[in-house]
Design a protein that fits this description.
Elements: E1 12-16, E2 19-26, H1 43-51, E3 60-65, H2 70-81, E4 87-92, E5 107-112, H3 115-123, E6 135-142, H4 143-156, E7 162-168, E8 174-181, E9 187-196, E10 201-202, H5 207-216, E11 224-229, E12 238-242, E13 248-252, H6 254-266, E14 268-273, H7 291-297, E15 303-304, E16 308-309, H8 312-315, E17 319-320, E18 325-334, H9 351-379, H10 387-398, H11 410-439, H12 453-458, E19 462-466, H13 470-476, H14 481-489, H15 495-498, E20 499-500, H16 503-512, E21 515-520, H17 521-531, E22 536-538, E23 543-549, E24 551-552, H18 559-571, H19 574-589, H20 604-634, H21 636-643
Parallel strand pairs: 2-4, 3-4, 3-5, 5-6, 6-7, 11-14, 11-15, 19-20, 19-21
Antiparallel strand pairs: 1-2, 7-8, 8-9, 9-10, 12-13, 16-23, 17-24, 18-21, 18-22, 18-23
Length: about 650
């Protein structure tokens, strides 16, 4: 345990004004020797600066120090912890800065370091948790050091970083500078007021009001030109040809209406750039980020639009605005084709039912013949009814033609009554189903869900998806379950068969071949209207509901004003209105055929199976005639017995 009683990352609870005050120290052995001596700062100077913010009761303080200021930090920590702060965390400047709390309130990171280490800290890749509108970086330097630091930071600082820089003069007075983002995307330091630690005079500023003032710059961007990353996406982002500067011309779509409304409201213009790989984008295991998401993450674009889904992987590298749409994924296939009507008259019953009926007729013929033989033996009679004759009469009952079987005995009457009731049931069911089949055509079984895909692939269908989208990564990253099973169904040997470059190509492949496309339901539904809605089938079971939003760089200061404007657009129904306008445009250009509901006559196509059966009957009768003639020629007495 160090002499000051503060262990590494261990909390020290101090009692002050009957409240529990905590502060932590995070120590990491330095790898680079801090350069320069500590400036002639006193605890009074620091207290004067911090007390100049009259919302200090709500502040969290994080103090980053280097070797040269270590002794001063120990003294300052005890003074501050016994003062008015909620809590304080100490970090060595070479350590990894991970806040011990969620930053959802004004938070100050006070850099008590040499200028070199200050520039090193602010030049590092800041953790996402610190790229936050609530974070303010506080620097206290002498006048010379302040000028050097400001000149460097104005060239290297990322937009959205809030810095309060206090420059201490020879006589102890302090000039306070704030960062400001100018319309041409240049970060500058603006002198706002003075402080005098000796006389305790100076303007007191609220960090909350300072934050609002900083963000207020983005409520009017003064005609600033932003860069927007986008891809072609039918109905949502239609793009034209390229301009000399490499940008592309925006044409129409829901997303472009959204950008135009943002531009009019916040007073900015924009140019559209396509990503080089044409993908929506995702972070890859090798650390690269593809597509539009990569452009935004690298700050090559100020934001992106193209119906972009919010996913866990993307949230790790960019921020997303307020969601303006809720989407799902669906399976698109060609409309089921009509089944062959050659055997339409057999379709009312399943094969199992037909087999059972046939066996019933044959079995009943045998049973009745045996019963007649027994009856003749007991009653000393000689019946003329043979097995063939009994079976044929039972078949006549089945097709509602009656029968010539005598009902002299009680057992015969019982059998015929129950057989007639069964035949009536068969006949009525067949007639009703046949009428329905002839009136309503039969179609192939449609593909409704992910569970139907393995069977479809076995039958020769190819499963497809748009390459580089979150849908591909959804299946690719699955480790088990139906998503993993579906991923294995794609053709990974020839990616060109399964992974298409755009939805238009995918939907055309659905019509031209046995191809199934998994895509965004609303986007592909608009495409199906353009190509002919009746030609497509959309799976009944959609899946993976998710939000659609606009990605912006992490810590982008204009995100909050984007959120406010987009929330008003959604609540005002503008997104729904723009979508309906796109639907109307497509519907007017490509009127889809609607099946007529009027009655129509039954054609030869409907009854072709009946004629087939008739022809088969004639052929079989001819064969039987030939067999009988042959038997008669060789054994005349046998044909007599056969007829008997």
């Amino acid at each position: 345990m160090p002499e000051d009683g503060i262990a590494i990352l261990a909390p020290l609870i101090l009692l002050c004004d009957s409240e529990a005050i905590s502060f932590h120290r995070q120590r990491v052995a330095p790898t680079v020797e801090a350069q320069g001596k500590v400036r002639s700062l006193t605890t009074n100077d620091v207290l004067s600066v911090l007390e100049s913010f009259h919302d200090k009761e709500n502040l969290r303080l994080n103090l980053l120090y280097d070797l040269e200021s270590e002794d001063f930090v120990d003294e300052l920590a005890h003074v501050l912890s016994g003062h008015w702060l909620k809590g304080m965390t100490l970090y060595h400047h070479n350590s990894t800065i991970n806040p011990l709390f969620s930053i959802d309130a004004p938070t100050v990171f006070f850099l008590l370091c040499s200028p070199r280490n200050i520039l090193q800290i602010l030049g590092k890749e800041t953790p996402k948790g610190l790229k936050n509108d609530y974070v303010t970086w506080l620097l206290i330097l002498n006048t010379k050091e302040a000028q050097e630091v400001m000149m460097t930071l104005e060239r290297t600082l990322q937009e959205g970083t809030h810095i309060v820089l206090v420059a201490k003069g020879f006589l102890g007075s302090m000039d306070v500078f704030y960062t400001r983002a100018e319309s041409r995307r240049v970060i500058s330091f603006e002198k706002r007021h003075k402080l005098n630690p000796r006389t305790k005079t100076g303007q007191r500023r609220d960090l909350n009001s300072r934050r609002d003032e900083y963000l207020g710059q983005y409520s009017d961007m003064e005609g600033r030109k932003l860069t927007v990353a986008a891809n072609d996406n039918f109905g949502f982002c239609a793009l034209g040809g390229a301009d000399p500067d490499g940008s592309v011309r925006p044409l129409s779509g829901v997303d472009l209406e959204l950008v135009n409304t943002l531009g009019r409201t916040l007073n900015f213009t924009y140019r559209v750039m396509r990503p080089a790989d044409g993908q929506w984008g995702n972070p890859l295991p090798n650390g690269t980020i593809t597509g539009m998401i990569g452009m935004v993450a690298r700050r090559e674009a100020d934001f992106a639009v193209c119906f972009i889904s919010v996913t866990r992987d993307r949230v790790a590298v960019v921020d997303f605005t307020y969601s303006y749409y809720r989407s799902v994924i669906a399976i698109f296939s060609r409309a089921p084709r009509q089944r062959n009507r050659a055997l339409a008259i057999l379709s009312p019953f399943s094969p199992q039912v037909w087999i059972c009926i046939t066996l019933s007729v044959l079995t009943m013929g045998v049973v009745v013949s045996i019963q007649l033989k027994i009856s003749d033996f007991l009653l000393k009679e000689n019946s003329r009814w043979t097995l063939q004759w009994n079976t044929f009469n039972l078949f006549r009952s089945l097709v509602a033609q009656g029968n010539d079987m005598p009902a002299k005995h009680g057992w015969t009457k019982v059998i015929l009554v129950f057989w007639s009731v069964s035949c009536l049931t068969f006949s009525a069911s067949y007639s009703g189903m046949l009428t329905a089949v002839l009136a309503q055509p039969l179609f192939e079984s449609p593909i409704e869900s992910l569970l139907d895909l393995p069977k479809a692939v076995k039958e020769g269908f190819t499963l497809g998806v748009k390459a580089g989208t979150n849908i591909e990564f959804l299946f690719k990253e699955a480790s088990d379950g139906i998503l993993k099973t579906t991923w294995d169904l794609f053709d990974h040997g020839d990616r060109g068969r399964s992974f298409v470059n755009d939805n238009v190509t995918g939907m055309k492949k659905v019509l031209e071949s046995d191809f199934l496309l998994i895509g965004m339901k609303v986007v592909c539904e608009l495409l199906s209207m353009k190509l002919g809605r009746s030609k497509f089938h959309i799976g009944r079971d959609d899946f993976f509901p998710h939000s659609i939003a606009v990605p912006v760089p992490i810590g982008a200061p204009y995100k909050e004003v984007f959120d406010r404007v987009m929330m008003r657009m959604v609540e005002g129904g503008l997104i729904s209105k723009w979508k309906e306008e796109e639907v109307r445009k497509v519907s007017q250009r490509t009127p889809d055929s609607v099946a007529s509901s009027r009655a129509y006559a039954i054609t030869l196509k409907h009854l072709q199976a009946a004629f087939f059966i008739m022809i088969v009957g004639f052929v079989l009768a001819t064969v039987v005639l030939v067999v009988e003639r042959a038997v008669y020629d060789s054994h005349p007495w046998r044909i007599f017995q056969l007829i008997k």
